[in-house]
Amino acid sequence: MKRLFIFVLFSFFLLFKAQEQATAAAAAAIADAVGDSITTESTEPTERILSFHSDITVHKNSSLTVTETIVINSLGYNFKRGIFRTFPSVRNLNGKTKKVKFKILSVKKDGVTEHYSTTYESSQKTIYVGNEDTYLDPGKYTYQITYETPDQIGFFPKYDELYWNVNGMAWDFPIDKISATVHLPHGAKILQNACYSGVEGSTMQNCSSKIISDNEIEWQGGGLLSRENLTIAVGFPKGIVMPPPPPSFLEKNGISMFLLLVFGGLLLYGYNSWKKYGVDPEKPVVYPQFNVPEDMSPAELGYIHHEGYNANYLTASLVNLAVKKFVVIKETTQKSLLGISSGKKYEITKLKEPSPKLAKEEIGLMNDLFSKSSTIMLDGSYNSKIERAVGNFTHNMTFQYKAFIKEGNNSNKVVRPAIVVFAIFILTFIVSSIIGGSTEQLVIGVFGLIFVIIFFAITMVLISKMEGLNKGCIIAFIAIFFLPFFIGFIIFFIAGNFDQNTRSSFLFLIAGIGFLFAYRYLIKRPSEEKLRKQSLIDGFKMYMGAAENEVIKFHNPPQMTPAIFETYLPYAMVLGVDKIWGKKFQDMLEQMSVDYTNDWYTGSPIGFAGLGNTLNSSLTNSISSGSTPPSSSSSSGSSSSFSSGSSGGGFSGGGGGGGGGGGW
Fold first, then answer.
1. Which residues span the domain enclosing 235?
2. 108, 325, 363, 394: which could form a disulfide with 144 (CB 3.0–4.6 Å)?
3. H helices within 307-438, ranges in order?
């Protein structure tokens, strides 16, 4: 039995070793097969550009005739029908961005004229060589593209120059060999030359030149990877190539003069329109008023004085109702777990039904707050009843007084000049972009214009829709969030690489917007009735907000009494003089050594100088918090640089021409 067990173990050992050797042999066979496959694949030809040669003839009128000979190896993957070639239609030359043209003279494949089609997009022109329905067999093909392009010579003080991107940075394939030959006009002599290779911006000079004759030169470059380019530059004496004539005065300044005339017309229109619609009536002289003007309610007086709604109008109305014994206000201090004060809360209790003699907004406020009970608590927590009361109060105020305040604003008068400003800007900017030949500039300008229009529209809406918003907050919001972008926008277009016409267009837009804001302010003409009421309110504010100076004493003001203090306190709150009014009352109590108590408000011990201010801030905050629902959680073309390339200060991609290409 023991021998049998040893025999079985030995048999399993031999079987395991045999299987291990077989697995190793199989792995080696697979590795050899993969290696053979990789070797075979690496020796197969790939789709690429075997050679790229550009033959460039410079004419005396500063135009070029270029013949590009491109030899490709096609396997039918990317080079399916043929090749495509892109040409940039914009370059920076002689200190300005200009549009350049490329006119195709002939296209051949293997020496035979070949069909091609042309498309235009963005800032480039693309030609597709080949037929859409005809596919190439695998093999080598030679394409020859001949084209003309005008105004490609750079003119410098001591020499003129051809600075040219031979193939461009936007080729999808490597290029094994690249070369270029330049033929200058008869009588020219090569003064200097340079070449640059590599990606855009590279100053590498993996290339060489050979002067064939006084006016002919040839460059040879090493192999290029995809997205790499050869740039050549040659300088020659001035006077051989005629520069284009300088722009006439009107060509150079026509748009600027037109915009100046239009802006002058806007100023004239604004002046005449202001004289007709915007000259304010004479405001009555302001005298101290010792009684509430025309029995206005505190909210009405505040709305007319500030020409809009403010949250403290509701607080003042509650205090006014308390002073008139319709409600009583009880203030208590909320305590935290540690006994530390964590805020104030107010209990408002209705004492009697509202009287028809009360202001409409005060009657509505009482009906909303005490619709189901005679007591309501303002402790900073959300209450739908408070939200409804605040909303109805705001709507009531707007309905009653907004039309009176807005009378004579003449907002519609701004529409016509605004249309003129933006329409003239759009027209001149498009014309400037067409003249300058910059599609990119046009796109940037369109987005810039959209931003400016949005900025202008939001600002105008905020200025005209003041209900519930503090004007100072609106101005701060505009200054913080919009003004930096607007200033940056102005600097970008004034200091950027834009021609004079484009800068003039944006200067006109900036000046036009400034005119519209000024015109919007000046065209307002308040009604005589509004000015009369505002002068009475100013006189009332003068009485409550001024110290007992000689002017006030001259008009025999009434003696300060608790009744006068209480009656006028809500008005002092909406006019922002509650501290001064309370201080006057405090001084009177100290001088007369009189104790003062009231039955309309109970709360923490504070001086009467701060009573109105305390109610104005803390009670207003409690109302605001109570009316706000809690938030719910929820889960390539040519370079734009203008410099000399032949003097050694150039780089790959710095010249004209170039572009790119690929297979289709």
1. 52-246
2. 108
3. 312-323, 360-369, 384-406, 415-436
